[in-house]
Amino acid sequence: MIWRALRPTTAPTASIIRTPIRFVLPIRTRMFSTSTAETSPAADTPAAPTLSSSSASSFTQTAPSVTSPEQVPKVQLPYFVSKNNLDNFGVYHRRKAGGNLKVTLLKRAEGNLQALKHDLKEALQLRDADVSVNSVTKHIMVRGHRRDEILHFLKTMGF
């Protein structure tokens, strides 16, 4: 047993070097080129807007030409489903009524939700009673756990 008078008054300091951990999220950037010829021959990515060399005072974008059947111009839809900051759709499974009722919830939809409900009902071959729209929260509820089918529908629609 060490007497109080012989004990050290302060605890020894640990030599631990603590460095802060930084998380870097990917950021999408748009590239503007000053030449009129394309520099990257990527077929699946759309052509980047270019700076017009004829008018130096104003920026004009050139429309990408349709060269393959994959690059068909998209139809303007009356609704839009946005993604979160992790680039995922807001599609979630829910259980209600004590776990007996299984529901899939689609969030972050904007625009004409009735048109989205109609397209979703036709794509998944559902009855009218299986799909409902909550106009206050702007959520679409689909009866059953159909998350993968809804995600496939949203990706094929081009969102």
UniProtKB/TrEMBL annotation:
Pfam families, per the entry: Img2
Keyword line: Mitochondrion, Ribonucleoprotein, Ribosomal protein
Top-level taxon in the UniProt lineage: Eukaryota
Gene Ontology biological process: translation
Gene Ontology molecular function: structural constituent of ribosome
Database matches in Gene3D superfamilies: SUI1-like domain
GO annotations of cellular component type: mitochondrial large ribosomal subunit
Region span, Disordered: 35-70
Residue ranges with Low complexity bias: 35-65
Matches recorded under InterPro entries: Ribosomal_mL49
Main location: mitochondrion
Subcellular location: Mitochondrion
Ribosomal protein recorded as keyword: yes
Keyword Ribonucleoprotein: yes
Family to which the UniProt record says this protein belongs: Belongs to the mitochondrion-specific ribosomal protein mL49 family.
Protein name: Large ribosomal subunit protein mL49
